[in-house]
Amino acid sequence: MSVFLYHIVYALAFPLALLPLKLLYCFSDIMYFILYHFIRYRRKLVRKNLLNAFPEKKAEAILAIEKSFYHHFCDYFFETIKLLNISDSRMKRHFAFKNEDLLQYFLKEGKPVILLLGHYGNWEWVTSITLWIKADNNTVIGQIYRPLKSKVSDLFFLRLRSCFHSVGFNKYEIYREIVKMRKAGKNWLLGFMSDQKPSADKTQHWVRFLNQDTAVLTGTEKIAKHTHAVVCYLDITCVKRSYYEGKVKLITDNPTEMPDFEITERYMDFMEKTILRNPAGYLWTHNRWKFKKQ
User: Do the beta carbons of residue 260 and residue 20 sit within 8 Å?
Assistant: First the structure.
């Protein structure tokens, strides 16, 4: 049944993907008006997150960020659907990678690479990195994903994220998959979105992030140390509507020499700077601070 429903969703989404982005943004503006003013989707949570993150800002500034965020959130929805029908050349114009030669260098050296990013800008478009990195048949480029509760949504997003031949790896199976790649003699570049909250029973470390004590995921750091992977951060900038830039920044090329949690803390510091540059690009609908430090 899930597969059948997935095909229905795909059949409905694909005609939208055929439309030009300018027209999709008209739909986005309509969606914003309905979502923000009538449905009021998670507005209380978004307002709470913004007030806690920016206690120094006046009410007018918070409201401006809030509205800009919802505009961007609706744009993200239609931009993501556009993945079903966008050429390689156009994708490269809309999402440009900078300093990607750093990744290329480490891959040529035979070193696995972890690319950390967050729910900022249009993170779904980051899978187009395969258009910028020249990888041989022994190099796997992919992303780690958390399976969605809806099987239909899960299948649909896996399809979207594979549009540029990026490989999706279930986060609960990633250790096993890395071992398989190692045994097959393959190198890898994997994107990890590590700004989500950990489960309450798996919280091992806290940082000060956006003026709040924040529980953070530490599994990526453990993988980096176990595999001796180079760790980089993708600093995403919303240049203008439908145009993004992702700049690669090195966190460490020798994770085993880093003190425990240092990689995680550097990543969160980078992530905070990205958000502060333009707060509207972050996913404020996520209940990031559900758990409080005891």
Answer: no
